[in-house]
Fold these 4 entries.
Entry 1:
Amino acid sequence: MNIENDIFNQLSIQPEEESFIQYIDNREVDRGNYEKVENGKYVLASDKQPFTISLEEDNLFYLKLEKLNDGNPFVMVNISDTPGGFPQNFDDVDEYKTLLDDSK
C-alpha cells in the first residue's frame, strides 16, 4: 500500500491463486497473475500491464505508474499478510483504469 500526493495505491496479493488485484483510490483497476522468478523477485502480468517487482527489506518494493506521482515510483509497503479487497460501488472505475495505460 502507498499514499502519495493524495493517491491511494494498493496491490492485493492472493498467494493461494498466485494472483493480484491492483486498486487506485479503492477502485479495482487491474488484476492478473504473478510468478516468482527468483528469491524476492516476481513478474506480474495482466491484460493491462506486465511488470516486475523486487522485494527489498521489510517486503517493500517500488511501483512506477507514468500517469501518477509525476512518473516517480511509489514506495509500496506491506501492511498485512492477509489479502484484502474493497466493494466496487464507484461509477468512475473506467477513468481510473486509464491511469495504467502506457505504464511501465
Entry 2:
Amino acid sequence: MRKLFRLLIVLFILYIFLEAVFNYFSKGYKSIYKLDGFSVTETRVKRTKNEMDNYYFEIKKDDTIFSIQTNKSISTSQNVLGSIKYFKNDEYECIFPLTKNDEAISDIICKVGSIYYYYNSLEGQDNDLDRFSEKLSKYRKDFNNSSKVIHNKDNVTVYDNLGDITIGLEHYKGMYLISNNDFINNDLFTHDIYTREISAFTSDYYIVADYKEIFDFHNFYVIDLKTHKMFKITSNNKISMYSYIEGVIDNLVYLFDPSNKVQYEIDIKNNSIKEIGNESLGINIYNDGKWSKINIYDAINNKVTFESIKTEFNNKTYDKVDHVGNKLSGYYYLYLKNKEKYDVYRVNVQNNDNIVYLFSTDTISDVLYKNDTVIFKDKNYLKYYSDLTGVKVLLQNNEVNFNKTLKFGFIR
C-alpha cells in the first residue's frame, strides 16, 4: 500500500511537471465553457510570431456578445475566469468578469444600443449602474484618477498616475524624462528650438540632430529612456538642417536630406547610420506595411513621410483609423469628429462587430500605442488610457497645447 501511495505521488508530481512544461511551450489554446449563465469562449495566444501574448474572451448571454482582450498575466492555466458579475436595466447591459483569483481583466463593460462602453466613461449617468459599481469597488481600485501632484517644475505639473510609465517630453532646449521618482531636465542646446523636424522617439530612445549647428551637422544626440544616459551617433557625411525624419519602423529611424539628395537609415542600438537612398537608387518609402521606391524628386516635391492616414473601416468613413497589432492580438482605433472633439472607439481584430467607446480628445495626431495602452495629448494635458485603469491625467503643460510640434514618447 505504501509503495502504491508513493507511486501515486510520483505520478501526480510528474503530471504537474508535464502540464507546466506544456503550458510554458504551448502557443495557446481555445476553450469553451459555461459560467454564471454565460457561454465563454476563451482564446489564449502565446509564443506566436508577430503576436502579443494575450487572452481573448467572447462572453455571450442570449444575443449579446461581450469581447475582451487582455495582456494581463493570469496564473491559472486554462478556463481562467472564476465569476461574471452581471447588471441589466432598460438602458444598460453590463458584465464585470473576474479571474479565479478575483482579479479584474477589464473595467465593467456595458452595451448601450449598438455601442459598448466601459463604466469609467458612464459613471454618474445611471444611479442603478453606479450602485452596481459601488458593490465592486474593491476590484476597481486602479480606476481612481489621482489629483495628487508629485512634480511641479518648469511649468510642468505631474500627477500621481504614472505607475511604471516613464515619459519623454520635448522642450525648447532639450527633453524632460519624467517618472514617479524622477524629473530630469536634459538641456541639449544653448538656445530655444521651437520647431524640431529632425527628432524622434523610438521604443527605447530619443534622437535629435545637433541643433547647435546652423546649416549642416554631423552629430545626433541620443537619450536612452531606460538608463537616462546620453550618447552621440556621428555621420561621416554632413547632413542639412533642412532634413526631416520620415518615420520610425522597427526601431530604425529614417531621415531624408533633400538638400544633399540622400536618405539615411539610423540604427540607434548599433550606433550606426548608413545611406540607403539617393538620386540613382531612388528613395525607400513605407506604406501600409510594405516597402517600395519612388523617384527622389517626387520625394523632394511632396515631402514624403511614412505616415499614411486611413479613414475607412467596415464600410464606414472615420476621420482616422489606426491598426495596432496583428491578426490575433490587436485593435483598430477609430476617430470620429464630434463638435470640437474626436470620439475614440476601438474594435478588436478578432471581432469587428463590437465597437467600444474609449475616450475623447482634441487631436488625432499626437497618439501613441503600446499593447492595450494609449497615451495622447488633449489640450494642455498628456493622458493615459488602459482597460485596467480607464483615463488618467499624467501631466499638464501649457506648451503641449501651444506648440503642437513638441513630441513625446514613453516606456513602461
Entry 3:
Amino acid sequence: MVFAELKPQIEKLPRPEQRKALAFLKHLLREGTAENRTDLARRHTEIEAGRKISHEELKARLGLT
C-alpha cells in the first residue's frame, strides 16, 4: 500500500483518529533511533532516581479527571 492510497482514508477520519494516526506514525519514525534510545535511557534514569508522578497526577495533567 502506498501513501496515495492511505491519504484519502486518513482525510476521512475524525480529528481524534487523525491525531492517533499521527502519533503512531511519529512513533514509527522515532523508534529504534539513537536519539530515542538516549532519551529513553535518560528518562529511565530519572524515574529510577525518584523523579516520577503518580497515576492520579498523570491523569490530572492530561485533564482526564
Entry 4:
Amino acid sequence: MLTLNQSQKLVRICDLYKIIKPILLVILSIPFVPRKIKEAIKIFIENLDLVCPIPTA
C-alpha cells in the first residue's frame, strides 16, 4: 500500500485539478445545469485555485 505525505497529497490533488478544471468550466457554461450546482462548482474552483494556482504563461 502506498502512503503519501502531506506535500505529496497536495501535489496529487493539484495534478488532478489541472485535468478536471476545464471540464468543470464547460459544465458551468451549460444552460440547463441547475444554479445551485453551478454555485457549488464555482466555490470549488475558487477554493482549489487558491490551493493550486495554475501558472498563466
